[in-house]
Amino acid sequence: MESLGLQVSVDAMGNLRGSPINREIPRLLIGSHIDTVPNAGAYDGVLGVLLGLALVDACRPMELPFGIELMAFSEEEGVRFRLPFLGSRALAGDVNSRLLSVRDANGISMEEAIFAFGLNPQQMEEARLSDDTFAFLEFHIEQGPVLEKAGLPLAAVEAIAGQSRVTVVFVGSANHVGTTPMDLRRDALAAAAEWIIAVETFARAADGCVATVGRLQVLPGASNVVPGEVTASLDVRHASNAERKSATDFLLQRAQDICDRRELACSFRTDLEQSSVPMSPELVTAVEHAIAAAGVTPKRMVSGAGHDAMILAQVVPSAMIFLRSPGGISHHPDESVLVEDVEKAILAGINFLEHLARRQ
Amino acid sequence: MESLGLQVSVDAMGNLRGSPINREIPRLLIGSHIDTVPNAGAYDGVLGVLLGLALVDACRPMELPFGIELMAFSEEEGVRFRLPFLGSRALAGDVNSRLLSVRDANGISMEEAIFAFGLNPQQMEEARLSDDTFAFLEFHIEQGPVLEKAGLPLAAVEAIAGQSRVTVVFVGSANHVGTTPMDLRRDALAAAAEWIIAVETFARAADGCVATVGRLQVLPGASNVVPGEVTASLDVRHASNAERKSATDFLLQRAQDICDRRELACSFRTDLEQSSVPMSPELVTAVEHAIAAAGVTPKRMVSGAGHDAMILAQVVPSAMIFLRSPGGISHHPDESVLVEDVEKAILAGINFLEHLARRQ
What we know:
Chain A is an alpha+beta fold. The first copy, chain A, folds into two domains: 2-161 and 276-359, Aminopeptidase, CATH 3.40.630; 162-274, Alpha-Beta Plaits, CATH 3.30.70. Chain A is 32% helix and 26% strand. In chain A, the strands form three sheets. In chain A, strands 1, 2, 3, 4, 5, 6, 14, 15 and 16 form a nine-stranded mixed beta sheet that branches. The two termini of chain A are 25 Å apart. At the A-B interface, strand 8, helix 6, strand 9, strand 11 and strand 12 of A face strand 8, helix 6, strand 9, strand 11 and strand 12 of B.
């Protein structure tokens, strides 16, 4: 960053920032995050920061009518405090004392962790996005198999899907497997299995929806005891909030119906309700043109994963460019990108900067 | 036991034994186990030991031509080493160095555990049933709803159903739930769920068969990751060995078919193949008469649960008397018995002792 003439600083949430020296002209923010999950790969987040760096370098001869601020967001995954997007929330002015008092698994509060890192949480306001920032651009690996299946290197993200997360508990009756005839059982795992298939069947038929049961705890969990209680997680995602909510309601009603028919009890606890976030329609179109001008068939898609752009979109027009993920693999050491896709992404980025320069 | 004049000892497998002082006369063995499953009730096993104690007490004025050895078997359920009937296997002479080298979840071998408990596994041979033992009688709660449904307090057990236990592993692909479309998933939990329903549907339609998936482990087990691997237990029971084996083969083939269709891998590991065991026909008839003489309509039934009598029947003529289980509940804190049923059981037991005395 320094060798490219940027002024480097770390804000109170630990975001690494490279600001243009000339503070009078408007600013474009480019970046992504530099944290990732345990046992992850090398590209999730970091690639978006490096592509920003490449664009700052590439545009030096261009004499753009705006400056570029480069951002390496901290703590996007939320591993330590189980709360994602901490870095981008600081830019959006969405950090309050309640958030700072959240504690990690060792009982250390976020405020204490920030102090221990040598930063001052009382300077959090200074991390806010400057008023002269007119747009945000984030490059990110897709982390899924859609582009690979389509045979395309890049996509313009039009929205980030909303998420509902619900914990569902099935309560039947634990009994000895040898002595309880099939017709007298109230098997919590059989009920949960019927529901898991219902969730999969529904989501397969519903356009643009993914629904997943990823966690399942079976009690008492012995091979010779009919399961008495099962706790399951449900995760539902869709670009439309209304569709997501109606899908979630339908699936919980299915769980209730299955339990009623099998004479089981069930209960639900909502763990997360995250609305979908559209990217700026004007910038999505600009990204599509920029991708096409790089010689690539443009494609729009919805991101099923959350990103910092989801937070920034609430305070500034935002856009995202996805790069193909070989094998759809992410959050895994085998995560990768193709060199030629990265070249296309830089080309598309330069085209996007030129578009913004013409518009400015 | 001591107050009833029995000589108390603990053998090398941890069985608590009360032997008659007079070692010259032949012996009747009476007993059951004193271990149970986690979060269980108060009667499974223990009631059979206490009824033996009651019979030793009741027969003191009877001057029987045989002695009674009372047995509180250890480790019938097999919780720690996932291998049941350890106590009765010691009596049957079925403990070898391979069994003793089996390790628990913490890596401690059975041999080490026996030493740590203060016993000497090298004295295992001394735990064998003495040659002068001519019969074994076990009282046990039914642990199922059959007697309650029939409105009867007691039953003569004519056979113990065989069991097959198999571990089934479904291997798919763990992926990000938000970025992996439904049609590109290889969800190990969805495959397992489909199979669990197939197991239940099959057993409901098959006469005299019970089949259960009681244990299920889902990896990685996060709400936002498509399950990549599921390990499930299968337990199949039937009075007919041929029927049990064909049912087990059919259900494993179903797992394979489901995995083939979903492009998953699966593997099987047989944990237990226990043949069905008939009780001594002569003693079953004697038990029926003893029950009838106690003023109770006699009933014969097959036990779906395994019992120590299943092991003992291989080395000595054996019989079992079941007591009604209110609500069919067992392996649960609500497990119970009716006081009047216990009275009938003691009466039937005394009648059985008198029959043996006449026969001797």
